[in-house]
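Dear colleagues,

As part of the handover before I leave the project, I'm documenting each prediction I ran so the next person doesn't have to rerun anything. This entry is a single chain, and its sequence is reproduced below.
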Amino acid sequence: MANPTEKQRSGWWRVMSALQKHHGGFTLRVVVDIIGEDQRKPIRTYIATLVEENVLTAEPAARVGGLVTHTYRIVNAGEAPPQRMADKGARQRVLWNAIRSMKTFREAEIAVAAATEELPIGRDAAGEYIRELVAAGYLAKIGQDANRFATPIYRLLPAMNTGPRAPIVLLKARRCFDLNLMQSVNLNGSARRAA
């Protein structure tokens, strides 16, 4: 199966939410039993992504043979989160935390602040996420260095410092999903929430 559609993810999320509401949590097996065995692999990938994003918690529930079955719980209710591209997820999470820790910054400063030995962050990757967050209304360009390169200086808008989970910007879909608010926000440079 190719990447799941928004409609598929929304369906999976509704099942997970209903199971949590009525049973306090859910397992992959129960979700697959309801949705269909043919969707096991993309559902498993979606659940793993949500655990990595701290949208779901995972607790070992039972051992069946040599396998451990996990019970998952939704941390905050809301809309179905999209899947962040795997190669961008870790980088965007550390970039977001660096952005939240600095009053003002430049692309290169955020790249250095976010990078680790295990996860190097280049200026291009930092710049791409910064531009996405500007388009989504999270960051504002507040000036630029008075040098020949005129490096832009940015800051996080206080009202958009929504929490520790990095927003997922979906430029092609013209929207942004805030994992802290568990909802979409406008991708028009304003802080207004999408209807």
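Confidence is low (pLDDT under 50) at residues 189-195. Helices lie at 6-23, 28-35, 40-52, 86-101, 107-114, 123-135.

All the best with the project,
I.
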